[in-house]
Amino acid sequence: MPHIAILSASVRTGRVSHRVALYLQNYIAEQTMFSTELLDLHHYQFPIFDERLQYQKNPSPQVVEFADKILKADGVIIVTPEYNGGYPASLKNVIDLLYKEWQHKPLAVATCSDGPFGGTQVITSLAFTFWKIGAWLVPGKFQASKIKEAYNENGNPANKEASDKAAAGFLKELTWAMDLNSKK
Questions:
Q1: What separation in angstroms does the CA of 117 have from each of 24, 109, 112?
Q2: pLDDT digit string (tens) for 38-59?
Q3: CATH number at residue 37
Q4: What is the layout of strands, in order, in the sheet containing 35-40?
Q5: Is 158:151 a contact under the CB 8 Å cutoff?
Q6: How far is residue 77's CA from residue 5's CA, in Å, rounded to a whole number?
Q7: pTM for the full model?
Q8: What is the tally of structural domains in the chain?
């Protein structure tokens, strides 16, 4: 069974985008499509980036474990909030920490905001960053607006039918990319 890592990018106190990561993990489990693992950057609390993993003399076991999980995943879903039109420093930190682990990796991005636009502005800068390091960002999108109203703390959506429909299309794109990537 293919394996997807779901990266929850926010480390902010009171974060709400993590609700979408939990929803996607639950949705995938319900569909029995893939095995998943939630990689919560809040849990990792990585120090500020000072050198790529490949150049570190004594990387922490936690960094090595995280890199291995990204490398071994068939695909990665990144759930990110939009902060002032961009993505959080915690996400930029782990993107820059790794390099070969991201190359040719099928990635899908779920964007979130507490406002009405679902984090639409964050995708531009994130897409450029992943393009520069050779990751494969799929065109499918999952945008979640008004998170506090749309998902509870456990990731349960207020409108399950609409969320499931959006997730199905989003995962169809990631599945397609993962299938192509496995044939190379």
A1: 19, 15, 8
A2: 999 999 988 787 788 888 888 8
A3: 3.40.50.360
A4: 35-40, 3-8, 75-81, 106-112, 136-144
A5: yes
A6: 6
A7: 0.94
A8: 1
